[in-house]
Amino acid sequence: MALCKRAPDGHRMIIKKPELLAPAGSLEKLKIAILYGADAVFIGGKEFSLRSAASNFSLEDIKEAVAFANEHHADIHVTCNIILHNDNLEGIREYLQALDDIGVKAIIVADPYIMTLAKDMGLKLEVHVSTQMSTLNSEAIHFYQEMGMDRVVLGRETGIKDLKLIRKRCPKIDLEYFIHGAMCIAYSGRCMLSNYFSRRDANRGGCSQSCRWYYDIFSNGQKINASEDDIPFSMSSKDMCLVHHIGELCEIGIDSLKIEGRMKSLHYIATVVSTYRKLIDTYCEDPDHFKDEGYVEELEKAANRAFCEGFYDKTPDDTFQLFNLRDEHPTQEFVLRVLDYDEKTGLAMVEQRNYFKLHDKVEIFSPVHKNLYFEIDKIYNEDKELVEKANHPMEILYIPVPEKVFLNDMGRKVK
Length: 415
What we know:
Blueprint: E1 4-6, E2 12-14, E3 19-23, H1 27-35, E4 40-44, H2 59-71, E5 75-80, H3 92-102, E6 106-109, H4 112-120, E7 126-129, H5 138-146, E8 151-153, H6 160-169, E9 174-181, H7 193-198, E10 218-219, E11 222-223, E12 236-237, E13 239-241, H8 246-252, E14 256-259, H9 266-285, H10 295-299, E15 307-308, E16 321-322, E17 332-342, E18 347-352, E19 356-357, E20 361-365, E21 372-375, E22 379-380, E23 386-387, E24 389-390, E25 396-400, E26 410-414
Parallel strand pairs: 3-4, 3-14, 4-5, 5-6, 6-7, 7-8, 8-9, 9-14, 13-15
Antiparallel strand pairs: 1-2, 9-13, 10-11, 12-16, 17-18, 17-26, 18-25, 19-24, 20-21, 20-26, 22-23
Helix pairs in contact: 1-2, 1-9
């Protein structure tokens, strides 16, 4: 299928848009991801999935997720990506059959047994090779293709030169590539720090993110960071952000662009998904006149650590690391979610998510309209009584908004 066509006025258009694949750790986050522009969402089940600390989905939850996704022309992918031990084997066949019966689009798999089992069972769902397999070359992809796999999720360590070569040599299998989120200090999924320090197995869903802990440094038995002013050492990477390369990924025909973060907040999911949705759509509509200005600033309104480009252009050096600083820096605070809007009174019914007060400046962002800025000049409680501040979690309030807003629009306090 051709990637491009010419519009009537002669400008190029990308007609094979990549799928935008978003994470979700709960049903609420899944629905927001889809409403804010995700073509597909990946989730974890109660069993056979990494990220055991996430609010993983029961089969009933997955059924509701698939129904909601179908209503909005989106797909659900379920992670079955633990490395199986013998005590994990029981129930896997029944679980895969249940996912297939529900209508899950794909499972994301790291263990070869699950890969072959899913295919041998003749399931309708696709089988995607997890990034846990650290697939970085075309011959490995050909191996998985011969096994009957439908997609390979490339390791985060795949740079653009190899990516172009892989796409050229492997034109008949879907390729999925990470564009945003946390990086692993080791090859993805191959780190044993968590197992060693906390007895929590990273490849069975229990990673304690030991790379982000603070450590003292010793040389020849002497502690180097000895003074009170020294900041303890950590091995944490900056977060990946490929805003400036989305056009190139569209042009070479990557099938799916993946955002990391099943543990992230509702506000983070909405912000990141909506930003990449607008970026992909704008680029594909007119790639020759596209400008990627403003997208990084939009992403920084969510709770992010400092950004880097991972392995995209080169092997990361020390400037891509946070050796002694967590550096989380949301520039704006998520304060409300819109539940309804009365066009006659101009009042929005909102759900409080963080503290705000009279005269705070707020930005409303949305999947259906441009960002709206205004100052809060009145706050009414649920009984329509005037109050000066919103300091009760999840309380229902009413505030005047100068333009129409919609269900699930979100408000951020402008600093």
